[in-house]
Amino acid sequence: METPVQHIGFLARNRHLFPAILSGLALSLVISWLIGQAGFPVALIYGIFAPLLVFVYATLIAPRVGIVGYLLASYFAIGINRYIPGPLGLSIDALLALTWLGVLFSTTKEDRKRMNNPLSWIMLIWFGYTFLELVNPEVHNRAAWFFAVRGLSVYFVLAVPLVFILSNKRRDLIWFVRAYLVLTLIVALWGFKQKYFGVDSAERAWLDAGAASTHILFGRLRVFSFLSDAGQFGALMAHAVIISLVIGLGERLLWKKILYVVLSGFFFIALAISGSRGPVIIVFAGLGMYLVLIQNFRLLVFGGIMALSIFVFLKYTSVGSGIYEIQRLRTALDPNDASFQVRLENQKLLRSYLASRPMGGGIGSGGSWGQRFTPGSFLAEVPYDSWYVKVWVETGVIGLLLYIILIIVILIYGYFYLKKSPDQEVRLRCLALYAGYFGICVGSYGNQIYGQSPISTIIVFSLCFIFMAPKLIQTDESEPESLHHHRQLQGE
């Protein structure tokens, strides 16, 4: 027989459950009354607030919910916005702010000490410089700064400490990699749907509003899935090729090895249908870094021969030219390609303009924000085409040099943290994330991918787990899975 003490313990353990049940019953009564009084559409509008309030409440008492929401919003917010017009682009801002509020209310001082990490300071240094851009005399509309700085530095400086506080266990790394691959697979499948079954009405409206000029070339669709554009889709697929292939090569169990290698092939085909050429460099750079890091001479030679073979195939043969995707990839290696020449001309114009502006033209002075806040200005009319060109134009040569130095520091720190990891399964996944990050850094020269969702969110999680690698150790008695050729990183 249960004692009164046991009943009290049950009530204490489930103190959050009863308010939720009562709130749900009350909301059901309110919605029923609204349906009777004002009809179903009005009741539906009010009903949407119910899960929103539940999510807010859950995040405040368990901030890890907010981190999960941040990851999901990074993948889906842009796509949903094509169907439901509204300021969904601010969802990431709201999620990060809400999660911070939950952290302040529900974590201990010891939890918050974890964010005192070199990566947090690196992000704070970069944010500090972007904050100084507010006093840049070249800025013509400071309202643009508040919108454009988010993807450039704010998301990174807010999200990195949160991951250190809330996702600092070995299992968090394992689950992140799984969630990343599942979400990216969903993105790829939707892309194949667009390729072989066509776009829906909302996507057609987006294309007709102006995106068709860059996403329908020679009558063929450049697949964008539910991301911001085809370039971002291609970059995500290229990154997924690296992650899945590196993990596949390191897995010990045969069925897992086959699964990851098959996934990498699937993601590479998805990369091809994006019609984006720049992301191919991400694959080459990331896998090249992987081969260097594992210090396996035979595998390095084999990888070098494979890379050279692919280069020769694309550069010096015409095999497969009848296949649009292969021909499109070939143009990435053509220095006389028309779009490449246009980029070089644009950079010459920008170099001349920035020669007397060491702090650049100001954050938000160009691109879509420039067209919105300072239409007709020089920077608003010259496309960036590259993430580093964007940093250069908006923060000047000083900002660009600082940015590159900080990336190099991240890579150096990341290598030593990776090398110190005692857990082989953690080391394998962090090695994949490190190679993927390096590929994104190199590929960002050709496209604006570094600061766009979901790549920017993946970068945050990747770097945090790499910097935590030495502390992500197995705490239970089960045997670690996988791995067989990564001991070289520890010098074993």
Describe this structure in words.
This protein has 492 residues and is mainly alpha-helical. The protein folds into two domains: 18-61, no CATH class; 111-490, no CATH class. The protein contains 21 helices and two strands. Strands 1-2 form a two-stranded antiparallel sheet.
Helix/strand-derived category reads: mainly alpha
Give the topology string: H per helix, E per strand: HHHHHHHHHHEEHHHHHHHHHHH
Termini gap:
59 Å
What would the principal axes of the Cα set say about the shape?
A: globular
Strand order of the largest sheet: 1-2
Average predicted confidence as pLDDT? 81
Write the layout of secondary structure elements.
Blueprint lengths: L3 H10 L3 H22 L1 H22 L2 H18 L9 H16 L2 H5 L4 H15 L10 H24 L3 H28 L3 H15 E2 L2 E2 L8 H21 L3 H20 L5 H16 L2 H20 L7 H7 L7 H17 L12 H7 L4 H4 L5 H34 L3 H20 L11 H13 L25
Helix pairs in contact: 2-3, 3-5, 4-5, 5-8, 7-8, 7-19, 8-17, 8-21, 9-11, 11-12, 11-13, 11-20, 13-14, 13-20, 19-20, 20-21
Features:
disordered C terminus, 492 residues, 2 domains, single chain, mainly alpha
Briefly say what this structure is.
This protein is mainly α and 492 residues long.
